[in-house]
Amino acid sequence: MSDFFVIVMKELKDLMRNKQIIVGMIIVPLILFPALGKMISFGISEAKEETKVILVNFDEGKYGNVLISALKAAPNVTVTLIDAQTVQEVIQKAQAEGYNVVVIIPKDFSKNIEANEKTYVEVYAVFKGISAGIKESVSEGRINVVLQVLNEELAKLKISETVKGNPEAILHPIDAKSYSVIQGRIVDVPPSVVSGIIYSQAFSIPLVLFIMISYVSQMAATTMAAEKENKTLETLLTLPVKRITIITGKMVGTAIIALVASIAYMIGLKYYISSFSPENMTQIGITLKDLGLEMTPKGALLFGISLFLSIVFALSLAMLISVFAEDIRSASTMVSMIMMPLLFPIWILMFKDVSTLPPAVKYFLYAIPFSHPVIASRAVLLKQYGIVYAGIAYLLFISGAMLYITAKFFSTEKVLTAKLKWGKRRGAEK
Amino acid sequence: MTAIKVENLEKDYGKVKALKGISFEVKEGEIFGLIGPNGAGKSTTLKILATLLMPTGGRAEVYGHNVVSEADEVRKLISYLPEEAGAYKNLTGYEYLQFMAKLYAKTGKSVEEMLKLGVEIAGLGERIHDKVATYSKGMTRKLLLARALMVMPKLAILDEPASGLDIINAYAIRQTIKRFAREEGVTFLVSSHNMLEVEFLCDRVALINKGIIVEVGTPKELKEKYNAENLEEVFMKAVGVRL
Q1: ipTM associated with this complex
Q2: Separation between Cα atoms, residue A285 and residue B108, nearest integer Å
Q3: Is the pTM of this model over 0.80?
């Protein structure tokens, strides 16, 4: 077995038995997230139950009864008609018998409609406790939909009585027919749907990258700082093994665990999100492929290279930073302090296309290695490979340089003596 | 053959001069002790010989290889036990020895041979299969000594091998060192501030104080020269402290 492989295996074994890492990797993402999602989806499914309406009709004309028939015909709504004298009385009855909604049709309901005056219906949603109130708002929404339909139908009826022509056309003279143009191709899909699909993509890639890079760099810093804290580094550095082998072995071991952790995180997050957004894009039946935005094998490969190089950069930088720390906690803090400013700007890319930004911001983002996988993820969909190649060339240079600096640093005594002094304390020298 | 050759070795940590030009030689198969108080420069000397630190002046050789320009060669010959060393807490003692054996196996002995020897030196019985995190200080130290010796180095550099240990553990460690020097011909460079320990263990000693070597010789020679009962007294007289 080569030295490199021996070090990778040791690193994997050591990390896999670290309780904090296992808890962070499995318990939080794979148990907590789906559990949280389940709880929310349970609340939503409960809200989708039958809306039980208690209805009092004080109206004496025909329109009160039209409304009652419309409500009875609406899906997921059951209507119970009762006689009552006051609003208070109805509400008490609703509370006692478990009704969600109280609807009261006032006295002059039909009279006002006939006289072409505005009228109203009182809708009371009954909150049973202090919860999110999803059920109550869903119920109220259902009544409103019925009222809206009724409004339209009444308006059309009145229009047909007084004016010639198509009542629908008079009520809504203009309809928009929406299309999207993607890369010069007309697609018969409204732009809101397209932007929804692209947004979910635009949002998820930087998020995934953010989580992954944070994990990778924290773990790299931890493994290196642990060597210092547990006093194993000096022994490690006197072994008949090349320093570059030690670093790359540790980096690969760390990267494997960090990638597994990131995947677990993504799976957990996906469960969490999908549990309360069932009407996602796949159910509408339109995918990126239908829009002509397909990732080709070449595109996937280029994106993969870009991602890999940015991880190499994060690992090398984190290892270098952790050399200056005395223990795991300070290494973790130092890595966060340096990594976060490098990671946050990529959030800009969630909302903006890099080419539309002012030059100063654009070049600032180009200079940050972690922007490139995000930029590449979009460019490969549009088959704009030029910018991807340029990004990879830049990453190759900057990640290579970072790895070289880290390796150089490890071949000097600075790896043992380097210390960032936080003010007062000075280590005693021997 | 000369195992270690140190000539005018200097080391500065910024303004602090840890070593002010020390020279000594260690013969093959010898147990050589570097003794002196805390901060005398013992650990610095050992770290330079273990290829961890760069000297700022002079030179040092291990079996004819320069510790700076031929560090890779030196690392194949030595085994270094730092003063405050630890082992990977999430591994078992056995797994720790196995990891180290695999990295040294190319230098001659097989992994199995090294492991067998390592387990024997550590003397931890069934506890060798427990996680290092559960070990006492003495157990960890014995595991680390086992790691250092199982690879059969030509030179073992041990920084305070028995410091902070109880009598039984310290005794066991000294016995092991003696056995490896006599039976296996391993050369030892040992540092200690425990002069009595060194007197028992070492063939020759160098007294070091404030970065300067004040005396070199066998414990017997030094005691006779200073008309002292033990090395402690020798040291005090050599550095000019009135008793």
Answers
A1: 0.91
A2: 65
A3: no
